[in-house]
């Protein structure tokens, strides 16, 4: 096995990823790196063989890790990157590993409104920035001032919201860049009003989504003029089962691991849903969930990064 640069954080070989992702399925990372701080990450990437693939992992909520595992290095930002601090009356500086719940709660405590929607997204700041995460009529691009990234070369760089050229669930973040912090701006508001909006969002999620299941969140992007869940429902896919995977009966844009699903089961079910929707409505659903790694047969199709 290749020799990697020395680190001050934790570096593990052949590290299981299933416990770290919401689906609780999938293979291992060739290497799993949890840096001690930003300098540790920057130094490591600067010295790492440029041919070695690198992928960032947040809360693992919007992710299918294929059963053959992920070649290269998976970087997981832990507690050192999970801090949120108020910069001024309307602005927060948030670590790339901070959760949406922590960001929105800190905003509330500091009287910063407009960030309540992050309460409903099961992910980290790094994922929000990369995917233009959004819900309940708001998106990351509405609040992002700038972000700091570590490039694959190890260089640290600040990028403005404009430089990311946001579109729906997509940014032009440089290939291999890892978001280590972001600055979000809202507006001044009363903490009680912010909490009321957070409660409204939490109740809406509880009523409509299978929150206590092994799932990956929203599976498909909403096509122009359509809701993905409605297209899936109209195609007769509510409750559809393949192996240990099932389309949620509560919210048809969620896939579930009912107990012993492989990642291949989950991905194949998603592809079958896409096929049926295309056949029924003519609309081609696009995956919102990232699918990474190798298949169990060792095939290296889209080995790291977004599968097509």
Strand tally: 19
Looking at the structure, what is the overall shape?
globular
Mean pLDDT: 94
Could you tell me the strand content as a percent range?
A: 25-35%
Distance between the amino and carboxyl termini: 29 Å
Number of helices: 6
* Secondary-structure element pattern, one letter each: EEHEEEEEHEHEEEEEEHEHEEEHE
User: What is the helical fraction, as a range of percent?
Assistant: 10-25%
Q: What report would you give on this structure?
A:
By secondary structure, this protein is α+β, with helices and mostly antiparallel strands. It is built from six helices and 19 strands. Helices cover 23% and strands 26% of the residues. A five-stranded antiparallel beta sheet has the order 6-7-13-11-12. Strand 17 and strand 18 form a beta hairpin. Residues 302-308 have low confidence and may be disordered.
How are the SSEs placed, and which strands pair?
Blueprint (H helix, E strand, L loop, with lengths): L9 E7 L11 E7 L3 H10 L6 E4 L5 E3 L4 E7 L7 E5 L2 E5 L4 H10 L2 E2 L11 H7 L2 E2 L2 E2 L4 E7 L5 E5 L17 E8 L1 E2 L2 H18 L5 E2 L12 H7 L6 E2 L2 E3 L7 E3 L5 H19 L8 E3 L16
Parallel strand pairs: 2-5, 3-5, 4-19
Antiparallel strand pairs: 1-2, 6-7, 7-13, 8-14, 9-10, 11-12, 11-13, 15-18, 16-17, 17-18
Helix pairs in contact: 2-4
């Amino acid at each position: 096995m290749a020799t990697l640069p020395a680190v001050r954080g934790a570096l593990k070989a052949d590290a299981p990823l299933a416990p770290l992702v919401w689906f609780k399925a999938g293979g291992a990372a060739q290497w799993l790196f949890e840096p001690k701080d930003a300098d540790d990450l920057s130094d490591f990437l600067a010295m790492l063989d440029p041919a070695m693939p690198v992928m960032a992992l947040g809360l693992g909520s919007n992710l299918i890790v294929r059963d053959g595992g992920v070649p290269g290095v998976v970087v997981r930002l832990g507690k050192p990157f999970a801090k949120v601090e108020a910069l001024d009356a309307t602005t927060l500086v948030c670590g790339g590993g901070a959760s949406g719940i922590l960001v929105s709660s800190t905003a509330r405590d500091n009287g910063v409104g407009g960030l309540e929607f992050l309460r409903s997204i099961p992910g980290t700041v790094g994922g929000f920035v990369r995917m233009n995460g959004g819900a309940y009529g708001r998106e990351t691009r509405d609040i992002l001032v700038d972000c700091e990234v570590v490039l694959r070369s190890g260089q640290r760089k600040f990028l403005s919201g404009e430089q990311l050229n946001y579109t729906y669930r997509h940014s032009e973040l440089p290939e291999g860049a890892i978001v280590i912090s972001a600055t979000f701006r809202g507006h001044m508001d009363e903490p009680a009003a912010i909490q009321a909006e957070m409660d409204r969002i939490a109740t809406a999620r509880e009523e409509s989504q299978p929150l206590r299941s092994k799932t990956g969140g929203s599976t498909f992007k909403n096509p122009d003029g359509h809701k993905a869940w409605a297209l899936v429902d109209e195609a007769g896919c509510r409750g559809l089962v393949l192996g240990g995977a099932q389309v949620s009966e509560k919210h048809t844009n969620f896939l579930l691991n009912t107990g012993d699903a492989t990642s291949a089961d989950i991905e194949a079910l998603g592809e079958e849903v896409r096929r049926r929707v295309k056949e029924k409505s003519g609309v081609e659903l696009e995956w919102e969930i990232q699918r990474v790694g190798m298949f169990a047969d060792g095939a290296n199709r889209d080995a790291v990064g977004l599968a097509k």
